[in-house]
Amino acid sequence: MHQQQMLIQQEGNEFTVPLEDIAIVVVESRETVITLPLLSAFGLYGITLLSCDEQFLPCGQWLPFNQYYRQLKPLNYNLKRACH
Questions:
Q1: How far is CA 23 from CA 32, 45, 55, 65, 82, in A?
Q2: What is the C-alpha separation between 4 and 31, in angstroms, rounded?
Q3: Euclidean distance between CA atoms 8 and 75, whole angstroms
Q4: Residues in CB range of 76: below 8 A, 6 or more apart
Q5: Which of 18, 19, 38, 79 is placed for a possible disulfide with 45 were both Cys, Cβ 3.0 to 4.6 Å?
Q6: What are the residue boundaries of the structural domains of the chain, listed by start?
Q7: In whole angstroms, what is the distance from residue 11 CA to residue 29 CA?
């Protein structure tokens, strides 16, 4: 991360993308390194992170905390049912 931008270093080149322009990041490469400051910035900017498996299929999802997402409603419903 550099000055509220995601810094991408690839094959000796550097690119930056303003965090405010990002909605979703999909990570396919197993060599990708993501820093904790960048993950925290994803949360603050409402950015979703998807990780992929060896076949490049999405297998994991990281969502910002306390943001509205469709997944939150069924999760809360299931948690309430499990506690009763």
A1: 19, 8, 23, 15, 32
A2: 23
A3: 33
A4: none
A5: 19
A6: 5-83
A7: 13
What would the pLDDT profile of 5-34 be if each residue is shown by its tens digit?
999 999 999 999 999 999 999 999 989 999
**Long-range pairs, 27-35, Cβ under 8 A, ≥24:** 27/51, 27/52, 28/52, 28/56, 30/54, 35/1
Distance between CA atoms of residues 13 and 66, nearest Å:
35
Backbone angles phi, psi at 44, to 5 degrees: -65, -35
Give kind and range of the element (H or E) at residue 72. Answer: helix 72-83
CATH annotation of 5-83: 3.100.10.20
What is the per-residue pLDDT for 84?
62
Q: What is the pLDDT of residue 83?
A: 73
Q: Tell whether the model's pLDDT for residue 38 goes beyond 80.
A: yes
Percent over 70 (pLDDT), the chain: 88
SS3 76: helix
